[in-house]
Amino acid sequence: MTMKKKVFILFAAAILLTVGACDKKEDTALSKKPATKGPIIESPSSPEGLTDEDPETGVTIIVPEEVKSKWMYVVIEVKDKKENKQEEFTIFIGGMLPIPDSDLTISVGPFLPDFQMDEKTITSRSAEPNNPSVGISVMENGNKIFPVTGKWGWLHANFPEIHSFQHERYALTLKGARFREEPQ
Questions:
Q1: Please, which residues have CB within 8 angstroms of residue 126's CB and are 6 or more apart in sequence?
Q2: pTM score of the predicted model
Q3: β-bridge pairing 85-92 and 71-80
Q4: Segment 133-153, tens digit of pLDDT
């Protein structure tokens, strides 16, 4: 075989390998695209578990099945700044809490024990409480006051000051969560 043929074969092989690598990268990128817009999907066969897209922000929230099946309640501390007192409430995930002696109502959304976020997706890396966070919505006298935009504002147990609920009288803090088997 001549030197010219060997160089040609090596050049052709390099091109084929490059094209093949590009094809693999495209396949990987396609598989990471967020789910298409649509209704809330809850499918027992879905590895993602519960998927919910916020139409206002375009962010998709994925609650993995292992998380959804393990966690049932969150514990939120309500601090009354005026009265200088605080109280913890255990609230069912998906439930509501009218805060006693106030015009506020908290709606509890998804709980993610190991919160992870990128540009278009919020999910949990695992079912372990490494970075516990809960999505909430707060109404005052029937008007939504938190979050300002989007379906859910987030309370982060490890970072309570990040994007926290701001109110002249009340402060909310995620103190923890409880398993399905744990008594209240």
A1: 66, 113, 114
A2: 0.71
A3: antiparallel
A4: 999 999 999 999 999 999 999
- Residues 3-23: pLDDT tens digits? 555 545 544 544 444 444 444
Long-range contacts of 178-182 (CB under 8 A, 24+ apart): 178/71, 178/72, 178/73, 178/74, 178/75, 178/90, 179/70, 179/71, 179/72, 180/69, 180/70, 180/71, 180/72, 182/72, 182/73
8 Å CB contact between 99 and 107: no
The backbone torsions φ and ψ at residue 76, rounded to the nearest 5 degrees and listed phi first, read: -115, 130
What 3-state DSSP class applies to 69?
A: helix
Which backbone phi and psi does 114 adopt, to 5 degrees? -135, 65
Residue with token string 């805060």? 99
Nearest to 49 by CA among 66, 33, 37: 66
Q: Where are the domains of the chain?
A: 1-33, 41-179
